Amino acid sequence: MRDVIIIGIGQTPVGEHWEKSLRHLAHDAIMAAMADARIEHADALYVGNMLSGELTGQEHLGALIADFVGLRGIEALKVEAACGSGAAAVRVGVMAVASGLHDVVIACGVEKMTDTSAAVTTSGLATAADQEYEVSQGISFVGLNALLMRRYMYEYGVRKEEFAGFTVNAHRNAAHNPYAMFQSPITAETYVKAGMIADPINLMDSSPVCDGAACVVLAPAELLGGRAKARVLASAVAIDCLAVHDRRDPLVLDAAVASTQKAYAQARVTPADISVFELHDAFSIMSALSLEAAGFAPRGQGARMATDGEIGIRGRVPISTMGGLKARGHPVGATGVYQIVEVVQQLMGQAGQNQVPGANIGMAQNIGGSGATVITHILAGV
Q: Which domains does the chain show, CATH number per domain?
């Protein structure tokens, strides 16, 4: 197996892009990444996307986007793993380069979510859950996370306001990220007073519906080591059942535990070695559960890491350093690639006012559904 490096990154601002189609968003991110990598061609393009068929009526994205960006004739495929589709595309790219199948691979995540009504978009997002045993019974995706949050609060005696630190941290960091959707800090009081969506999840617990695209270019270190921006130390995937009620314990993300442990073993690191952790904070409860699953906090203590200030830029475990899903935004199929782009920025010392001092190893974890697919990448600086 060959060592894999990232030689280029690109991203579009996250927001409501009324003037741009899905293919144009992907184009902008890919062109930026190719220019950054100093390449004019690639062997393959893998596109991470969840909802193009459901929301835009467009499938067959690999061929569509490869042709649109001037890469007609190469291998090009869409990769889908619900909200984990972006990281899944990167995972496929890493395997292609590591195996020697391809030398230069582009992994792009893209999503267009704002051109449809809230009802249609909500229905699309619910396809990440178990249609027969959850969705058909009337529960929404936010409703599933609300049940998890309520159970967490009950089991561990955590008060609602103790989750505020996750949102405050995310918005504080997004204020210095020009690609973020929400670039204004908020207070804990704003969090507490936010409108309720599905009790106990309110507006400030939830990531927004939005559009965006992000991209990385992968290559073997033995051929293009001089262009390396970061090294891929680990790429790992694990799954759990879709339906929350079928899980061993609803408050343990078993797939995140397994995915993280695989990644730690591949990279030969421990939680103490991680400088920055871009976790999947689609909802505040997922931040707490992810910190616990990844070994940064005991069960029931993840939420208190936010209260104790351990998750800030200079904290013990910096998370959501460029705003995370909550404030940078969560264009679902693109999110996993945004996370990796942001880890690369940290490792290169290019995160501006959000720079984590001495960042040399970063971890990005992208979750599909409410914990059914978890994809973890660990990167190192060069």
A: 4-117+210-229 (3.40.47.10), 121-207+231-380 (3.40.47.10)
